[in-house]
Specification:
340 residues; Rossmann fold; 2 domains; 12 strands; disordered C terminus; binds 2-keto-D-gluconic acid
Amino acid sequence: MSEPAPPEILMLRPMHPVVAEALGARLTLHRVDGAADPEALLREVAPRIRGLAVGAQTPVDGGLMDRLPKLEIVANFGVGYDTVDARAAAARGVVVTNTPDVLTDEVADLTLGLLLATLRRIPQADRYLRAGRWPQAPFPLSPSLRGRRIGILGLGRIGRAIARRLEGFGVEIAYHGRSRQADVPYAYHPTLVGLAEAVHVLIVVAPGGPGTAGLIDAAVLRGLGPEGVLINVARGSLVDEAALAAALADGTIQAAGLDVFADEPHVPADLVACDNAVLLPHVGSASHHTRAAMGRLVADNLLSWFEGRGPLTPVAETPWKAGAEPSEAPGPETSRKVEA
Ligand code: 8YV
């Protein structure tokens, strides 16, 4: 008897090479990127595709899913999956996975780096030295972390890892989110403006998507005030970038450190023009170590699914019961019958 053909997977954009390596020969991988005619390739393979491997910036909506009638699983490279319509996937019985935990410490480390770089003006000091200005005068004194209260918007896994690191810096910590969390010692603020008014630094680490779009608006920035600092390592969509650029330019807030932007990789010119902003090209998880771990988790989710063991890290909206035995869980054959 001949072996069944390996399930066919589609990769829409280039991903860390570990994904393809880890899938090996057990799954057949088609790559749209680099194809001479991507649309023709998509048309040819679409009827057979059972899995998608996608990066955080690749939109996957109901329209694309409808072109893939055998689709069972979308494996997203990234903990944030705002570019994948997880509800549309659930309605079609399609499982969505992301890459939590493996990047938590890396993103938290970067956040602390960005916070210190923004307050102590580390990139500006580096530019000052390279421009040969030190012999003329010492670099001007900077703001400080000392004595500041830090607010965190979104006390999830990464938010908590940031808070744990901040405890070591001897600063007060407060947070806002959908609800108070009983197991943390930090002050809860039921409104975002209330949190902004109570702290000197606001760190944004909440999920992106329509539910949080534009949350950081002119009123929140006014609440932060002239000694206020905004740090965003979540998604650019959470911030009204025009209001932020105006607030940085007119002194409504003191400084900002941004790793994410609404229309990446394009950054508004009026943010680039602000000397009191430290701007990074979305590098929160971008180390060799962590990106490889994320790539392995993408591959492991696909392999686990197609070997009938269920998804390893399904997202909240996905039609999957945590802890379900493979026998009661939707497997490759039954997945399209799963209740949304
Ligand atoms: C992405 C991220 O992995 O995990 C996330 O949500 O934003 C990053 O770590 C990055 O955008 C790679 O595509």
